[in-house]
Amino acid sequence: MAIEETLAIIKPDAVERNLIGVIIKMIEENGLVIRKVKSYYFTDNEAKKFYEVHKTKAFYDRLISYMTSGMIIAILIEGENAIAKYRQLIGSTNPNDAEEGTIRKLYAIDGRRNSVHGSDSKENAMTEIKFFFT
């Protein structure tokens, strides 16, 4: 098994509801190591650049508005198969479809305000990590 790095973001809805600690605890309890943490406020242009992959999708404008609505927490995570392990921990985008015990099943409000982001591939993880931790 390979040691990987991935990016997690605790989104504005979870920050507003004081869920930072409980989410970090879940990450650590699942065998992943927190290497760096940064609180951050996306500007409109930064959010558009970060989520450029979704530019053609119907939800894009709402996503940008949401991600710029408050503070986020960017987290550099490391561990064996960290990308897949963290994606499994966060659950499906829509909390109604997420497995029991996942972060989104437990804490997401809906499919947009779903509390956390996780890199979906090695390539995206590298790009997203560089965005916050150069």
What does this structure look like?
With 134 residues, the chain is of the alpha+beta class. The protein has one domain: Alpha-Beta Plaits, CATH 3.30.70. Helices cover 41% and strands 21% of the residues. The chain is built from seven helices and four strands; from the N terminus they run βααβααβααβα. The protein has a four-stranded antiparallel sheet, sandwiched between helices. The radius of gyration is 14 Å and the shape is globular. The two termini are 26 Å apart.
Using the 3D structure, state the CATH architecture: 2-Layer Sandwich
The topology string of helices and strands comes to EHHEHHEHHEH
Extract low-pLDDT stretches. none
The CATH homologous superfamily corresponds to Nucleoside diphosphate kinase-like domain
- CATH fold assignment: Alpha-Beta Plaits
The tally of structural domains comes to 1
- Overall average pLDDT: 96
Q: What helical percentage do the residues reach?
A: 40-55%
Largest sheet descriptor: 4 strands, antiparallel
Question: Which CATH class?
Answer: Alpha Beta
Beta-strand residue percentage: 15-25%
- Give the overall form: globular
Helix count equals 7
Number of E-state strands: 4
Structure classification: alpha+beta
Strand order, biggest sheet?
A: 2-3-1-4
Kindly provide the radius of gyration, computed on alpha-carbon positions and rounded to a whole number of angstroms: 14 Å
The first-to-last residue Cα distance is: 26 Å
